[in-house]
Design goal:
With 497 residues, this protein is an alpha+beta fold. The protein has 3 domains: 296 residues, Kelch-type beta propeller (Neuraminidase); 85 residues, Immunoglobulins (Immunoglobulin-like, Sandwich), CATH 2.60.40; 36 residues. It has 2 helices and 32 strands. 39% of the residues are buried.
Length: 497
């Protein structure tokens, strides 16, 4: 009995509870508890979990002024600390952490309108810098970091456009922006989450009214696909990927107006593997404080934190959700890169991937192609024998309990070498024929030039000959005239004595 009491006590009071083979079937999941409130009440803040395990709350709005305040929460100590203020005050910005550890805060509203500014925070040095401006100024867009390290900023409200559908893509390595395929449904006040399958899910939002639409973006193929809608239309809610690979959609509201009800405390759970939604029936699974205009993030400890927001007043509330894992959670596979892409037949293509397992370790890998079948059983490999065509590449990993992940998907195109392309060969033939024609014309031009030169020389000779004849003729005429003149001349008179 003492042993059982000790185990129960440890489950209640220790920071990382001991789990006695419980599952979501017989224990409330998620289950909530209130943590230390943040020092500054606010909503519309940018919230990101850093590589150091701290949860950073940046900027925001409390109904009077747009903020630059940055505060960090430590889940291990349940304490807050102040950090360097943002260079630019902002609310309703989108934010994501790059693979380089920097936290990027993109756009938002500064108090004077939507902005394109990108502010980057270095948690190690506690310093801010600015990066290349986004392509579109947006307020209440949402962002997520893809498996390849690029940051995808989706939707939002832009000047003159309350229902933006742009997919803005930021490359932290090049510090540059590009546009991806437009999201099918333009909207603002949505929430974007990268799923365990590597797809980026755009959920809910506003386009004249609250929405339940869910659309998923595939960074590998630059395409969108419609997914099962949320059970309830909503905007300005929190959403986070749980340690079980499911997406938890929390709270929110339906009114576009700042700090106007209704305010929800519901939890809806989306499973990307089955494209289905569920709503937990436990009372303990309802978020304690109904609200909107807040964000939810997953800490490095696997717990979900809902911080700040509005519910008639702007609040500093910080509540933590603990998700009970099933007996074994399937691992997750990630395709990191496929290079070069596109490639030509015979060219070496390198595939790199990795796996993650929240309750164990990854022990096996499998790559396959829609055209070539099985490719490799290593996490990374190179191949130069892929068939010509567009390959759908599938990558999966197996955990130490024998469970395989859902396959991550990418695409790579293999073209024929340009020298073997029929169109290229036709162009080469046409080029050769044109070249030969040009050579013929050049020879004809040279021959014509020679003829012209010969005629010119002959003309010069003829001219000289005619000129000589003319001179002789003139001389003869002069002589003849002289002779005639002299023949007619009167004889001189005889001399007289």
């Amino acid at each position: 009995m003492l042993l059982l009491t000790t185990l129960i006590a440890s489950m209640v009071f220790v920071g990382n509870p001991v789990l006695l083979s419980v599952s979501a079937v017989d224990s409330p999941s998620p289950s909530w508890r209130t943590k230390t409130a943040m020092p500054t009440a606010r909503g519309q803040a940018a919230i990101v979990t850093g590589d150091d395990g701290l949860i950073y709350v940046m900027g925001g709005w409390a109904g009077a002024a747009v903020l630059t305040i940055v505060q960090a929460y430590n889940p291990l100590t349940d304490a807050w600390t102040g950090k360097a203020a943002m260079p630019q005050s902002v609310r309703g910005a989108s934010a994501a952490k790059g693979h380089n550890g920097l936290i990027y805060v993109v756009g938002g509203e500064s108090g004077a309108g939507q902005i394109k500014t990108v502010q980057a925070y270095n948690a190690t040095s506690n310093a801010w810098s600015t990066k290349a401006n986004a392509l579109n100024a947006t307020w209440m867009a949402s962002a997520a970091t893809g498996n390849d390290g690029r940051i995808f900023v989706i939707g939002g409200e832009s000047p003159g456009d309350a229902h933006n559908n742009a997919t803005q893509i930021y490359d932290p390595v090049a510090d540059s922006w590009s546009l991806g395929a437009d999201m099918p449904t333009g909207r603002s006040e949505l929430t974007v989450v990268k799923g365990s399958d590597g797809l980026i899910y755009a959920m809910g939002g506003y386009n004249g009214s609250a929405m339940s639409t869910v659309e998923a973006y595939n960074p590998s193929t630059n395409t969108w696909i419609r997914k099962a809608p949320m059970p309830t239309p909503k905007l300005e809610f929190g959403a986070a990927l749980g340690p079980d690979g499911k997406i938890y959609v929390i709270g929110g509201g339906t009114s576009y107006v700042n700090n106007a009800g209704p305010f929800f405390n519901s939890v809806e759970i989306f499973d990307p593997r089955t494209n289905t939604w569920s709503v937990p029936g436990w009372t303990e699974s309802i978020m304690p404080t109904a609200r909107k205009e807040f964000s939810a993030v997953t800490g490095l400890n696997g717990r979900i934190y809902a911080i700040g927001g509005a519910n008639g007043a702007y609040i500093a509330t910080n509540e933590e959700a603990f998700v009970v894992l099933p007996d074994n959670v399937s691992p997750t596979a990630y395709i990191d890169s496929v290079t070069p892409n596109p490639a030509t037949r015979g060219q070496t293509i390198t595939f790199t991937g990795h796996g993650a397992d929240s309750d164990g370790s990854v022990v096996a890998y499998k790559w396959r192609s829609s055209l070539n079948g099985t490719l490799s059983t290593s996490s990374s490999f190179s191949v130069s024998t892929l068939a010509v065509g567009t390959h759908t590449i599938y990558f999966s990993v197996k955990d130490d309990d024998g469970a395989w992940s859902t396959e991550a998907v990418a695409a790579v195109t293999v073209d024929v070498p340009i020298g073997e392309d029929p169109t290229y060969q036709q162009l080469q033939d046409v080029n050769e024929a044109l070249s030969n024609k040009v050579d013929d014309l050049a020879q004809q031009n040279a021959n014509l030039s020679d003829t012209v030169d010969a005629l010119a020389a002959k003309l010069d000779s003829t001219t000289m000959m005619l000129l000589g004849i003319s001179v002789v003729t003139i001389v003869l005429v002069v002589v003849a005239i002289a002779l005639v003149y002299m023949g007619r001349r009167p004889k001189p008179a005889a001399a007289t004595a």
